[in-house]
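User: Quick one: structure for sequence A, then sequence B.

Assistant: Sequence A:
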Amino acid sequence: AQLDRKLTAKDFLSVEWILREEGSGTREVFDNAILQDLPDANIRLTLGHNEAILKIVAGGLGMSCISRLAIEPLQEKGQLVILDTPYWQLTRPLYMLVHRQKYQGPGLKAFLKFCDNQV
């Protein structure tokens, strides 16, 4: 469906949410951002796998807050859309741990440099 206006947080008041389980990073993003504006959000189902969530949402049984990378294959096929929600901070930091005494070859060094440049 398309609207002739921008979405607001109030547009999500009656949404049925299909979410990752509590304790997952994706669920933490949802809880910290969306639940602040929608404390009575209707969480219909929680699952432990992105694929299951995507199939349910693509089938029209709710909405989700899930990684953009997980969504892209279904978005390219036109089965899902990503909604513009600039009023919610829906990102999370990622951390990389590297053992300081392990050899860091040129591939790993290049990858670490690439990651640093993405910030």
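Sequence B:
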Amino acid sequence: MKQGWEIKKLGDIGTFQRGGGFLKSDFVEDGYPCVHYGQIHTKFGVKTYNHLTCISEELALSKSKIANSGDIIIAITSEDVEGSCKCTAWLGDYDVAVGGHAAIFKHGLNPAFVAYYFRGPYFNTAKKVYAHGSKVVEIRPADIATINISYPSLSEQEKIVAELDCLSGIIEKKKQQLKELDNLAQSIFYEMFGDPVENDKGWETKSLKNSCVQLFAGGDVPKNNFSKVKTNEHTVPIISNGVGEKALYGYTSIAKVNEACITIAGRGTIGYCEVRDVPFFPVVRLIVAIPKKERLLPIVLRNIIDAHKFKGTGGAIPQLTIPMIKDCSIILPPLPLQQEFASKIEAIENQKELIAQSIKETETLFNSRMDYY
């Protein structure tokens, strides 16, 4: 423990109270401000000043629990242990109703200091002892109350929060820059080629199944069979569902690609597509589109496919298949114009790479300061 810091159980410096019972179906357009535990997982950061939804005042005051400004609102259930006990410091200048699967922590410390502590390495290790459940993981407020917290004076807490706020603010600004560059790339595409679905510029069109684009599908591999494999004495990545890369062992039916192409997610994040410009990789659960570069560049095809917003069909597990997209009409703009677009996108991607590296460095610094405190 750092010199001059106190150490106590969370339950000794504050009180925990479970949220009340309301569902998303109880939301109304105008009513009593509320916080749903799902919003803590997906919408709120370390600090929250404004509510997103309301419930009726009758429901808020009869069944829900109320959080005051400065309270910590904790999502006590999650899909996994890592997401459990994600929290936000409620700093709005009004009270909010807190629903089920959440808890309210009332305390006397700096609210943001406590919220950062809940994201720190000590708490994230300590909470795992109390996690229970399989499909839904829960940590009881009574168990959270037994976890220790070390803390300095309020003035020192404020200094720590100011430092962490500064670093996290830099990270968020840089992430926003990445989004703005993505928007710029999209606007350049539409400015140069128009709407590829409407073809308002009258470009030549052909179906995806024609000779300009080769289509094939990766094999379907059970998720629990992902592991490592060596192919030609080199460990190779697996591209699955359009996101994430893993290695795979024991399957020879998976598709293998050794040239630039587009991969389209057939399951999971259906329709998500990406340019793949690696020398060799196997593919599972994806549609692969290899354009003939003398007619269509991969980066242009990617934007065309994005614009079509392909959707999957099916029951419990919707999927996108080649027969569902092969007759889709795509534009074929002049190759020099495509090359001009590709050059502009390359410049944007180079800028994004610099920003991404800066984000990584700032996150490393942020994490080291979290570890230190």
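The mean pLDDT is 87. The CA atoms of residues 267 and 316 lie 11 Å apart.

User: Thanks, that's what I needed.
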